[in-house]
Amino acid sequence: MTIFELRDLIAESLKELGICLVKASFEGRDNSKRLQVLIEKMDGSSVSIDECVVVSRRLAAAFSGIEFADRFSLEVSSAGIDRPLVKRADYDRFLGESVVVSLSRAVGDKKKLYAVLKSATDDGIELLVDGSGVMIGWDNIKSCRLDAKIRIQGKV
C-alpha cells in the first residue's frame, strides 16, 4: 500500500466523524517509525483530545487488515495552531495569514521565510516578506505552516 492509498483510507475512515485529514506522514526510522496523522473538523476548527482518541481507535481498526500495520506506531493529533499547509486549498484558505515557509533552495540568503501569504497560483505562492513581494515556486516549498507566534499574539 502506498502512502497515497493510506491517506485515502484514512480520509475515508474520518468522513462520517465529521473530521478531515490535514496531513499523514511517516516519521522516524526503522523500529521507531510512526505514522503521524494531523486532523481537524470539517469546518476547519480544532479537534479535542477525546476526538483524537476516537480517531486513533477508528484508524487502528481500519489498519488491522493491512500487513505492514504492525511496523509503525500511530500518532493522531490536532493540526494545531501552527497547522501545516499541504494542499492548494489550504493555501487559498489561509490567504492573508502569517506563515513560515521552509525552502528547498535559498531565496536570497534565506531558506526559511517568515511572511504573509498574499496569493496562491498555478506556479506557486506570493509572499510579503519585510514589505516586499516574493514569488516562490511550488517545487521550492519544502514545508509551509501557519506562524504560531503571530497567531498567539493575535496580530493576524
From TrEMBL:
Residues annotated as domain Ribosome maturation factor RimP N-terminal: 9-82
Transmembrane segments: none
Primary location class: cytoplasm
Ribosome maturation factor RimP C-terminal domain segment(s): 85-147
Gene3D superfamilies in UniProt: Ribosome maturation factor RimP, C-terminal domain, RimP-like superfamily, N-terminal
Subcellular locations according to the entry: Cytoplasm
Keywords (A to Z) from UniProt: Cytoplasm, Ribosome biogenesis
Keyword Cytoplasm in annotation: yes
InterPro entries cross-referenced by the UniProt entry: Ribosome_maturation_RimP, RimP_C, RimP_C_sf, RimP_N, RimP_N_sf
Pfam families: DUF150_C, RimP_N
HAMAP family: RimP (MF_01077)
Function according to Swiss-Prot or TrEMBL: Required for maturation of 30S ribosomal subunits.
Family, similarity comment: Belongs to the RimP family.
Listed name of the protein: Ribosome maturation factor RimP
Organism: Candidatus Hydrogenosomobacter endosymbioticus
The gene coding this protein: rimP
